[in-house]
From TrEMBL:
InterPro entries found in the cross-reference section: 6-blade_b-propeller_TolB-like (IPR011042), AB_hydrolase_fold (IPR029058), Peptidase_S9_cat (IPR001375)
PANTHER family, alphabetized: DIPEPTIDYL PEPTIDASE FAMILY MEMBER 6, SERINE PEPTIDASE S9 FAMILY MEMBER
Keyword presence, Repeat: no
Keyword RNA-binding in record: no
Provenance organism: Microbulbifer taiwanensis
Domain of life: Bacteria
High-level lineage: Bacteria, Pseudomonadati, Pseudomonadota, Gammaproteobacteria, Cellvibrionales
Keywords assigned: Hydrolase
Name of this chain's protein: S9 family peptidase
PROSITE patterns in UniProt: PROKAR_LIPOPROTEIN (PS51257)
Domain Peptidase S9 prolyl oligopeptidase catalytic, residue spans: 440-652
Length: 696
C-alpha cells in the first residue's frame, strides 16, 4: 500500500549528499580549541567530495533471467545507467547519457529485455517513466506529458513487454490506470480513477484491489468482482502506517500482508479473499516485520526480517534455512536482499558494516557462494571512518528510543569518550521513516570533523509497532521533540558532549525539528542547519501536492486537521514561524526552489520574519533542486558552507570552502556574512549574494 513512505519524504542527509570525484588534497583547518592549544587534529580530514560525492557505482541489479547486470555510475560527472554481462563488470557500457540531475532510480522489466527508470525535472517530482530497449538502446518516454506524474503499478512475467502505469494527466489528484507497451509507449486506458489511493494487480496482471481513504484517515480495501467494487475490509487509522498489502499468492486467491490490526507489531499474514480467513506466517513481539523476501516466480515468502537495531533475517521455508544460516555467518554487518533472479538461484545483496563502503554482492542459493558485484566507493578504503554504535535511550514517559551514536575515531573508546566532544543531533525525515544502522556519508563527515553524531528514532518513527507510531499523532513540536531533548540529555549525562556544544541538523521533517529546536527550546542547541524544513504547518498542509489527495485525511489525523478550529489552533501553536522572536542561536537554511512537498515559501517566510526582527540567518537557495539536493555540485556547495557554519558554532575541524561552490547553482539569498569564508568563496566563484527581496 506504500503509505509508510513519510509525509515529508524521509529525506536523509546521506540521500542529499552523493557527489563527484575528488579534486585533490584538502587543506586541513583546525578547530578554535586546537588552534589555541597549538595542537593538530589527530585524524586527517577526509575530502568532502569522497563522502558527499557520486559513488563509483550504486543500485546493483541482475536481470530477471540472470544474464545481465545493471547499475548507476557517473558519466561525465552525472549518474547514468550502465549494463554489462552478468559477472563481467569491466565490459559495462552506459545506456543513458543524462547531463542534468542524473538518473535517481532504475529497475528491470520482467522480460529482461528492457531497463526502466524514472526521472523528474529539476526536482518537481513529476516523475516520467522511461524504458530502454537493450537490443536497440532506444529510450522511450512512457509518460510523455508535461506536468504529469507517472507511477509504476505492476508488471508480470506472463505478460512480457507490458507494464501497468498510473498517470494523473486527466485529474492531477488521481492516477488513471493504463496498460503500456514498453517498446512503443502505446497506452490503453484500463480505469479512470476518481478517488482510489492505491491499486493492486494479481500475477496475471488483472486489476483486483483498490484502497480508498476514510474520513477518519484509515483506508477501505475494495475488490473488483462481478464488474463492481465490493468492500473487503477496513484498515483503521491507527493501523495505516503499519499495515500494507504486499502481493498475491501463486493462485491469485489470496494476498500477503503486513498487518497490525488486532495487534501492536505488524505481522506477516496470508488472507484468503474468498473466505476472509487469515493465517499468521511470522510475527515478533519486539518490532514490526520490516521486510519480506518472496520467490519471484511462485510468489511464496522465503524469509522475513525484523529490524530493531539491525536486520535479523529468518527463513520461512525449510529449503532455505541453510541459505540464511550461511548468510548470517558470512556477511559482516547489516544486509538487505534487494532482488532475485526469477528462478531464485541468485540474490542481490546490499551489505553494510557502517564504517566502510557498502558492497553489492550476489548470493548463489544453490551452493551458498557469495560473489562481490562491486564496492560502492572503493576510495573510502583505508580512510579513518568512524564506528556506529546502537543505543537504546529511555524517553521521559518510558518509551524506548532506538538510536545510533557515532563518535570521532580519535575520541572513540569503544563507544564512550574520555572527555566530552561537540555533538550534532541528526534528525531523520518523514517523520514516518526511521534511522537504520549503516554507512552514511553525512555521519562520517561529521564524525571526521570531530563531532559525536546522535540519530534518534523518536515516536512516529516506523518499525516499532503502531503504538509507537501513533504516539506521535498531534505531537509535532510536542512529545516528538521531547524525545529528541531526552536523547540530548542522555548524551550529556553520559559525558559524550557538553550542554553548550550541541547542534541540531536535519532534512525534511528533520529540518522542521531543527526549526522547532531553535524556537521551542531556544537555548538547548548552539545552532541549527535546516534543509527543506517546513516552518508553518497550516500552509504546509494547505499546499500538499494534488496527487496526495488520497492521503489528506491520514495526514490530518497524524499532524492536525486544518479544517477544524481546534486543528488550526494546534497547527498554529506548533509552527516555528510563529515563534521566530524566540530564536537566539545561529540558523542556516537550505531550500530547493522546485520542492513540491515543502515549498520555497516555507523557507522564505521564516527568513523574512527573522530578517524583520534582525535575527541572524543564512539562507541558501537552489533554483534547480526540489525536496533535497541531487546535483553533485549543489550538494558539495551546501555542505561546504554547513561545515564552516558548524565549525564556527561548536568548534569542530573543517576543510575550507575553497572551490566547492564551483559549478553549483547556489544562491545565497541572505546572510552570507554569517558563515565564515562564504562571501570570499562566492566572490571566487563569481556568484553574487543578493538581498532577500522576494521574502518581504
Amino acid at each position: 500500500m506504500r503509505k509508510s513512505i513519510g509525509f515529508l519524504g524521509a529525506v536523509s542527509l546521506f540521500a542529499l549528499i552523493s557527489a563527484c570525484s575528488p579534486r585533490g588534497d584538502s587543506t586541513t583547518e583546525i578547530s578554535k580549541e586546537e588552534a589555541a592549544a597549538g595542537e593538530k587534529p589527530q585524524v586527517k580530514l577526509i575530502e568532502r567530495e569522497l563522502l558527499f560525492g557520486n559513488p563509483d557505482r550504486s543500485q546493483g541489479r541482475l536481470s530477471p533471467d540472470g544474464s545481465m547486470m545493471s547499475f548507476r555510475a557517473p558519466l561525465d560527472g552525472v549518474m547514468n545507467l550502465w549494463v554489462a554481462p552478468a559477472g563481467d563488470i569491466d565490459a559495462a557500457e552506459p545506456v543513458t547519457h543524462d547531463t542534468g540531475r542524473g538518473i535517481p532510480r532504475h529497475f528491470w522489466a520482467l522480460d529482461s529485455k528492457h531497463l526502466l527508470y524514472t526521472r523528474d525535472k529539476k526536482g518537481d517530482e513529476n516523475w516520467h517513466l522511461y524504458s530502454i530497449d537493450l537490443e536497440s538502446r532506444k529510450i522511450v518516454d512512457l509518460s510523455p506529458y508535461e506536468g504529469v506524474q507517472a507511477q509504476m503499478i505492476a508488471q508480470s512475467e506472463s505478460h512480457p513487454g507490458i507494464a501497468i502505469v498510473g498517470m494523473n494527466d486527466r485529474d492531477p489528484r488521481w492516477h488513471d490506470l493504463y496498460r503500456v507497451n514498453l517498446k512503443t509507449a502505446e497506452r490503453k486506458l484500463l480505469l479512470e480513477n476518481d478517488g482510489f489511493a492505491t491499486f493492486f494487480f494479481d500475477n496475471d496482471l488483472q486489476l483486483r484491489l483498490a484502497t480508498e481513504s476514510t474520513p477518519s484517515g484509515g483506508f477501505n480495501v475494495f475488490e473488483w468482482r462481478d464488474e463492481e467494487w465490493l468492500q473487503l475490509f477496513e484498515i483503521p487509522v491507527a493501523d495505516t502506517f503499519t499495515t500494507q498489502i504486499l502481493g498475491f499468492d501463486a493462485a491469485n486467491n489470496g494476498i500477503f500482508m503486513l498487518d497490525s490490526r488486532e495487534r501492536d507489531k505488524a505481522a506477516l499474514v496470508h488472507l484468503d479473499l474468498e473466505s476472509g480467513d487469515t493465517e499468521i506466517l511470522a510475527a515478533s513481539e519486539l518490532a514490526d516485520i520490516s521486510k519480506v523476501f518472496f520467490h519471484p516466480r511462485n510468489h511464496e515468502p522465503i524469509a522475513y526480517a525484523v529490524n530493531i537495531h539491525t536486520n535479523k533475517w529468518t527463513a520461512l521455508e525449510e529449503d532455505y534455512a541453510d541459505n540464511f544460516s550461511a548468510l548470517n555467518a558470512s556477511v559482516e554487518g547489516n544486509f538487505d536482499i534487494l532482488a532475485s533472479t526469477l528462478d531464485a538461484s541468485r540474490w542481490v545483496l546490499y551489505t553494510d558494516r557502517g564504517n566502510a563502503s557498502p558492497v553489492y554482492q550476489v548470493f548463489h542459493s544453490g551452493n551458498n557462494k557469495l560473489d562481490q558485484l562491486f564496492v560502492t566507493n572503493p576510495k573510502l578504503d583505508g580512510l579513518p571512518l568512524a564506528t556506529m554504535y546502537s543505543q537504546t535511550i529511555r524517553a521521559r514517559d518510558g518509551k524506548d528510543l532506538i538510536s545510533y551514536l557515532t563518535l570521532p575515531a580519535d575520541a572513540d573508546k569503544n563507544g564512550s569518550v574520555s572527555a566530552p566532544v561537540p555533538m550534532v543531533l541528526l534528525v531523520h525525515g518523514g517523520p514516518w521513516a526511521r534511522d537504520t544502522f549503516g554507512y552514511s556519508g553525512a555521519v562520517q563527515w561529521l564524525a571526521n570533523r570531530g563531532y559525536a553524531v546522535l540519530q534518534v528514532n523518536f515516536r512516529a518513527s516506523i518499525g516499532f509497532g503502531k503504538v509507537f507510531v501513533n504516539a506521535g499523532n498531534g505531537e509535532w513540536a510536542g512529545a516528538m521533540h521531547d524525545d529528541l531533548i531526552d536523547a540530548v540529555d542522555w548524551a550529556i549525562e553520559k559525558g559524550i558532549t557538553r550542554p553548550d556544544k550541541v547542534a541540531i541538523m536535519g532534512g525534511s521533517y528533520g529540518g522542521y525539528a531543527t526549526l522547532v529546536g531553535l524556537t521551542f527550546t531556544p537555548e538547548k542547541f548552539a545552532c541549527g542547519v535546516d534543509i527543506v524544513g517546513p516552518s508553518n504547518l497550516n500552509t504546509l498542509l494547505d499546499s500538499i501536492p494534488p496527487y496526495w489527495e488520497g492521503y489528506r485525511n491520514t495526514l490530518h489525523a497524524a499532524v492536525g486537521n486544518p479544517e477544524t478550529a481546534e486543528g488550526r489552533k494546534l497547527l498554529q501553536e506548533r509552527s516555528p514561524l510563529n515563534r521566530t522572536d524566540k530564536i537566539v542561536r545561529p540558523l542556516l537554511i537550505g531550500q530547493g526552489a522546485n520542492d513540491p512537498r515543502v515549498k520555497q515559501a516555507e523557507s522564505d517566510q521564516i527568513v523574512a520574519a527573522m530578517k524583520e526582527k534582525d535575527i541572524p540567518v543564512t539562507y541558501i537557495l537552489y533554483p534547480d533542486e526540489g525536496h533535497g539536493f541531487q546535483k553533485p555540485e549543489n550538494k558539495l556547495s551546501f555542505f561546504a558552507a554547513s561545515e564552516a557554519f558548524l565549525a564556527d558554532c561548536i568548534g569542530g575541524s573543517y576543510q575550507p570552502i575553497g572551490e566547492d561552490l564551483s559549478g553549483s547553482s547556489i544562491q545565497v539569498v541572505y546572510g552570507a556574512d554569517f558563515v565564515p569564508g562564504l562571501p570570499q568563496a562566492l566572490d571566487k566563484a563569481k556568484i553574487i549574494a543578493t538581498n532577500m527581496e522576494t521574502a518581504e
